[in-house]
Amino acid sequence: MYKFSLWGARILIQPKPDLRYLYIEITNRCNLHCRMCFKQYWEDKEGDMDWDLFLKVLDDAEDLPELKMIYFGGIGEPTVHPRFMDMVREVKKRGFALGISTNGTLLTEGVMEELVELGVDLIYFSMDAVPTAANVLNLGHVTSAVTAKKIGELVKFKREVGTERPFIGVEVVVTKENYDQLPEMALYLKRLGVDSMLVSNLLPMTEEQADQIVYDGSIDMEPYLRKLQRIASGGLFMRIAEFQLRTERYCDFVENNVAVVRWDGEVFPCYRFLHTYPEFIFGRRKKVVTHSFGNVREKSLKEIWVSPEYVMFRFIVRASAYPSCIDCPLNYSCAFVEDTERDCWGNSPSCGDCLWSRRIVLCPIPEEYMGKFL
Description:
The chain is built from twelve helices and 13 strands. It is of the alpha/beta class. The strands form three sheets. The chain has a nine-stranded mixed β-sheet with strand order 9-8-7-6-5-4-3-10-11. It comes from Pyrococcus yayanosii (strain CH1 / JCM 16557). Residues 16-236 form the Radical SAM core domain. InterPro entries: 4Fe4S-binding_SPASM_dom, AdoMet-like_SPASM_containing, Aldolase_TIM, Elp3/MiaA/NifB-like_rSAM, Radical_SAM_PqqE_MftC-like, rSAM, rSAM_sf, W_rSAM_matur.
C-alpha cells in the first residue's frame, strides 16, 4: 500500500500489475520523411530494439495477468526493423494478441499473407488523402496511393482465408489541406474494406504547421463531422477527435492502462513523453522533454508499472490534479509552460498542455475493438 499526500489529503493506493496494453517501439527509424512527423524535429538518436531486449520485454509481459494486447507502435515504422517478422512470429507464438501501426509501404504480398495466416489482430495504417490522380499529382500524396493499394491487397487475403483478422484501421491527420475531403475519404475507405477510421488532428512542430490546424476556430468543421457521423452509422467504425477546446480531460493512455517501451528499453506512460521535440499549442511554442519511469534492462515491466512514481503519476492524471495550461490567462508569460518538466502545481512531468488529454489529438487504442475481435 502506497501513502501519498495531495493538497493536505492522505491518499492510499494499492498498486496492481494491471497493465492492459503494451506498446513497443521496436524501432524509431522510418523509410519516409513526412514533413509533419515528429522525427523531423526531435533531438533523439535513431535505433532498433535488439533481439535480446525484445525477448526480455515479452518475458516480462507474461507476468502481467491483465495484459490484453502487444502493439508495435511508437514514433517509427515497425516494418523497417530487420527482424520485424521474427518479432511478429514470436509474439503470436507466445499467444499474445498483436496490433501494428504502419504506413504500409514496405508490406510485400508475402508478408501480408503471413500476417493474415498468423492471425495478427489489428493493423492501423496512416493515410491523409483520397489517392485520386489530382491529389497525387498536385498535392504529392503518392504515399497514400501506395498505402491504399496495400490495404486492398490485405483485404483480399483476408477474404481468401475467410477471416476477420486483422481488423484494419486507417488513421487520418486533419489539416487545412484535407479537412474538406474527410467524408469522401470515409466513403473511399468503406468501399476499400477498411473496418475503422480514426480522425485525429495535427500536432504542429513549427510555426508554419501551426497555421494548418483546424481546431482553433478558423474552420467550421460541423458540416463535415455530421457527414462523417452519417457514414459511420452505415457500418464504418469511426473515432473522431474534438475540434474545439473542451473542459473535460481524459488520457486514453492512462485510462486504458497503457505503457510504451521505447526501442532502448525505457518505459513511458504515453506517446507524448516518448521523445524530446518542440510543439506548438494554439500558436505557443513548447518543448516536450522525454520522461521515462525506468528501463526494462534494469527492472521488470511489473516493477516499473507498480513503482510509486509511476502509480502516483497515473493517479494525478486520472484525477485531473494538474493545471489546465492551455486556457490559463498567464500561459504566454509563465515560465512553467515553456517545457513539460514541471508545472506550477509541482507535478513532474507536466501534462497541462497535452492535446491528447483534450482528445484533440488521438492515437489508436485497441480497447474499442476488443469485444468484437478478441
